Amino acid sequence: MYATQLAAYKTVRKEAMSGREIEALALTQAALSLTECQKNWDAADREAKLGEALKINQMVWTIFQGELMKEDNPLPKQLRADILSLSVFIDKRIFEVMADPAPEKLTAIININLNLAAGLKGQP
Predict the structure, then answer these.
(1) Which is nearest to 107 in space by CA: 50, 56, 34, 42?
(2) Whole-number Å distance between alpha carbons of 115 and 6
(3) Average pLDDT of each block of 10 consecutive residues along the chain (124 residues)?
(4) How far apart are CA 110 and CA 106, in angstroms?
(5) Domains of the chain with bracketed CATH
């Protein structure tokens, strides 16, 4: 019974969110999935969860890359270039973690995601 109500609430909440809020939420959720992997590094299902968390992060950043490359993107060119530079770093780090997994390699991705999410939400 409560599951249906919760699903309805989430749908309404997403429909009421701005683009920036959705982007911030996506970055935060991606960071939290990596944090969970980092905290439970020795878990039996770590490989599957890490793969999924990295896939989600890569998808979020790929969407950002596509949006930042559009000519009609309203952000200043320098800011777009800076975020694209971050996305290149994120891509490289994701591939590094895939090739040679280590929990400390996740920290930079987590921190960048959370800091960018905070900026999107207007938080210091």
Answers:
(1) 34
(2) 28
(3) 51 64 93 97 96 96 94 92 96 97 97 94 73
(4) 6
(5) 12-120 (1.20.120)
Cα distances (Å, whole numbers) of residue 51 to 5, 11, 56, 57, 119: 31, 27, 9, 10, 27
Q: What share of the chain is helix, strand, coil (3-state, %, to 5)?
A: 80, 0, 20
CB atoms near residue 67 (< 10 Å) = 14
From residue 16, how far is each of 23, 74, 88 by CA, in Å? 13, 21, 31
State which H helix or E strand residue 97 sits in.
helix 77-99
Contact at 8 Å (CB) between 50 and 37? yes
How much is the pTM?
Answer: 0.83
